[in-house]
Specification:
The structure is a single chain. The N and C termini lie far apart (104 Å). The chain is mostly helical. 67% of the residues lie in helices and 0% in strands.
Length: 238
Amino acid sequence: MTETGELQPPPSTPPPGPPESGGPQGNPWERRATLGLAEGFIQSLKLFVTSPTEAFAQTFKKGDFGSPLLFAIIVGWIGIAIGQIWEVLMGASILSMMPPEVRNYVPFVPGSTIGFLVGVIFAPVYIIIGLFIWSAIMHLSLIIVGGLERSVAGFEGTFRVVAYATVAQLANLIPVLGGLLSLVWSLVLAIVGLQKLHDTSTGKAVAAVLVPFLLCCACIGAMIMTFGVGMMAMFANQ
């Protein structure tokens, strides 16, 4: 009330708007409480596919692990299910050309119906384990190349990048080449995401993504060479 005894209207609540800090507003998935679960998911897919730079610019750098984890499980499960379907279709064609004694063991042959069901049912477990392992490897790589100098996101930021990069799993819609396209696409998304969420340079983001990938390829190459040398030595001693 005023000094004259008149009632004052309650103070009006300011309309919602961007925070004063000017930070990220959250991508559509992170705004699903307002947009709705389905709408937030679909809009996020579209944004990460058509404009990953804008998508990661909107993404919160910190907040929780649950939200990006759930997104990755949904997208990853869809990608694995699609890949398993193509594998079953191709596996059935290959098995039809094999002798009957092989076809009798269909449940244990990749591309079988049992293999499909096992892959789809346990897909969330594979996704969760893979997310944390790959995030840890990439975060260590970021530390090595000095990509965290201006970062405030920490490990959670790297995890968010890896989680949202699972959008690349949608490339499994393409038969045969889908796996290769998914790999390349996920690397590109990771580079863009690390640059945005850790406020690092493009060069350091590229190095952080490619260093573990190249080391993995080098290890596989070394194993193949060691196996080949061992086989040659075995045949030479016969």
